[in-house]
Specification:
Largest sheet: 15 strands, mixed
Structural class: mainly beta
Helix content: 10-25%
Distance between the termini: 42 Å
Radius of gyration: 21 Å
Strand content: 35-45%
């Protein structure tokens, strides 16, 4: 079964409670079963598009596309659970960006990625949010809690290490990590302010800072942040915040300079977390990551993109995309997009004459300043063509 990948923002999934049949039996069974093939294999490596998009088999069915999400529990859509013939039971809620949504649970007897299999995997089952593909799956915490895992973004590989043979690096720098709920939490600092951050490969952004942390340190005032609006969508709905840059995000001996940050102003869901926030894919891809969560360590090896600037959309757009369209969710005032007459709600159907994809949406708006990008958009049912002369807007 081939399942198209989901468009994701930030997950930070936490199963609050699953009642009825799911309480004791699944908790006990979920602690069992890691198998390598062959049994004496030291590691299993698999291709991972974008560094985290890979394929698996569920109870022998597949391949199924899924996301390896270090900020999430195992999650799948209700439609995928139905196609796999799983028994779905229980009631509960899934907490995430924008609030929470109703959730049930299902047990998958075998989840196989390459030559490694985890047995008796509990999945949270939810209905697909509006604008997402119907069939999707995420795996994360149950793999990280049992296996050392290496994510090599440059080589597009994920490696799962057999704990029996794994020898952690003895001299490489690392940051301390631990689990809270289903998410990996790492120690960092934001412009000298100590910060516990979710290490979240399921977020396509650079840095989210949650509302309590923002308010405690008066960050909106500190950074003179004035650009406010749509800040992505989690399981519970849309989020909002201020777009700005911080001067330095520090991990152990590594510093990421001038990353784009969203200062959330939400008071629900993960925006109200006691944590400082989330560090996402745009920053994490600057490193090769080795998660050794059983010993509480995350090793970070700078990659070729370590010192590259963090570029914000140079047309001045915030865009949501699914498998069918790219919708403009926010237009930065006085930006090239605003000058071209683009508006919130417009749908981009072509970029320079080609239908938009995840890659083309990123690449088109990160071209050098002075580049002209030609967009075909649908506005109030009418098709028009606009041209944006790219410039730095943040």
């Amino acid at each position: 079964m081939k399942i198209p990948p989901v468009m994701w923002t930030r997950t930070l999934a936490r199963l609050l409670v699953l009642m009825g049949l799911l309480v004791a039996p699944l908790h006990v069974r979920a602690q069992k079963g890691v198998e390598f093939s062959p049994s004496d294999a030291h590691a299993v490596s698999v291709h991972a598009g974008n560094g985290i998009e890979l394929q698996a088999k569920f109870n022998g069915q597949g391949p199924i596309d899924l996301i390896f999400d270090t900020g999430s529990a195992n999650i799948m859509s209700a439609s995928l659970a139905k196609k796999l013939g799983l028994t779905v039971a229980g009631t509960g809620r899934l907490d995430g960006g924008g609030g929470s949504v109703p959730a049930k649970g299902a047990m998958v007897d075998r989840v196989q990625i390459g030559g490694v299999t985890l047995r008796h995997q509990l999945f949270i089952v939810i209905d697909a949010p509006s604008g997402q593909v119907d069939d999707f799956a995420f795996v994360g915490d149950q793999w990280l809690q049992r296996l050392p895992v290496r994510i090599d973004f440059d080589r597009q590989r994920i490696t799962f290490y057999n704990p029996r043979y794994f020898n952690p690096p003895s001299k490489d720098p690392f940051i301390p990590v631990h689990f809270e709920g289903n998410a990996v939490i790492g120690e960092a600092s934001v412009d000298g302010i100590p910060a516990l951050l979710v290490i979240d490969t399921g977020s396509i952004y650079s840095l989210f800072l949650d509302s309590p942390f923002v308010k405690e340190h008066d960050l909106v005032h500190r950074y003179s942040a004035t650009i406010q609006g749509y800040a992505g969508r989690g399981w519970g709905g849309a989020e909002s915040g201020f777009y700005t840059r911080v001067d330095a995000l520090q991990f152990s001996s590594f510093t990421v300079k001038r990353p784009v940050a969203v200062l959330l102003d939400d008071t629900q869901g993960s925006g109200a977390s006691h944590l400082a926030g989330i560090v996402g894919l745009r920053i994490l891809k600057r490193f090769t990551l080795l998660f050794d969560c059983p010993t509480g360590r995350l090793y970070m090896e700078p990659s070729a993109s370590y010192n590259k600037p963090d570029i914000f959309n140079r047309a001045g757009l915030v865009i949501d995309a699914d498998q069918e369209q790219a919708r403009i969710m926010m237009v930065i005032p006085h930006s090239p997009a605003a000058k071209a007459g683009l508006e919130t709600g417009d749908i981009i159907t072509q970029i320079d004459g080609v239908a938009p994809t995840d890659a083309s949406l990123t690449n088109a708006f990160e071209r050098p300043t002075g580049t002209r990008v030609r967009l075909t958009v649908v506005h109030s049912g009418a098709v028009r063509i606009v041209s944006c002369l790219l410039q730095d807007v943040l």
